[in-house]
Write a sequence for this structure.
């Protein structure tokens, strides 16, 4: 069973000791609970915390992410994916790109936006969702703790 690594966002087969074969981090247990940055799926059900996903500071700012749900291109890291989407817009204009798109609004504070410190993200084409590495303070205020107990 492939599982989503909460650290590197890769879909991996966990090793027998629960480690991720890609980034070597422990995918289960206390290590995950205490980690600063972990994957959160967007869009989410319920109200988002008004906190920056990158640093956990309070913010009312939202940043819109638009990604094309393609099959092959979705394997690109988020920044490259965004760049190629931008290129497509520039080359073909917005009308030519008719694939499914996903738009999510994610709280990113001014400072992180200016420093371009937006955490890495990954598009899950099949599910139509996006994963962002989110700060622990943000995660603690999520409406429904996904898988947490
Ligand atoms: Zn990993
Ligand atoms: Zn921030």
């Amino acid at each position: 069973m492939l599982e989503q690594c909460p650290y590197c966002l890769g879909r991996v087969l966990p090793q027998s000791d629960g480690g991720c074969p890609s980034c070597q981090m422990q995918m289960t247990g206390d290590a995950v609970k205490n980690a600063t940055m972990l994957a959160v799926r967007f869009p989410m059900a319920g109200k988002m915390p008004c906190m920056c996903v990158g640093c956990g500071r309070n913010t009312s700012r939202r940043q819109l992410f638009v990604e094309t749900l393609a099959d092959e291109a979705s394997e690109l890291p988020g920044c490259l994916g965004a760049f190629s989407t931008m290129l497509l817009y520039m080359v073909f204009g917005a009308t030519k790109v008719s694939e499914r798109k996903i738009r999510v609004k994610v709280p990113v504070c001014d400072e992180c936006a200016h420093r371009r410190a937006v955490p890495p993200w990954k598009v899950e084409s099949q599910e139509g969702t996006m994963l962002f590495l989110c700060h622990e303070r943000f995660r603690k205020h999520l409406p429904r703790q996904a898988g947490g107990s």
User: Anything to note?
Assistant: The chain has a mean pLDDT of 83. Residues 52, 54-55, 57, 109, 111-112 surround zinc ion (ligand 2) (CB under 6 Å). The chain is about 20% helix and 25% strand.
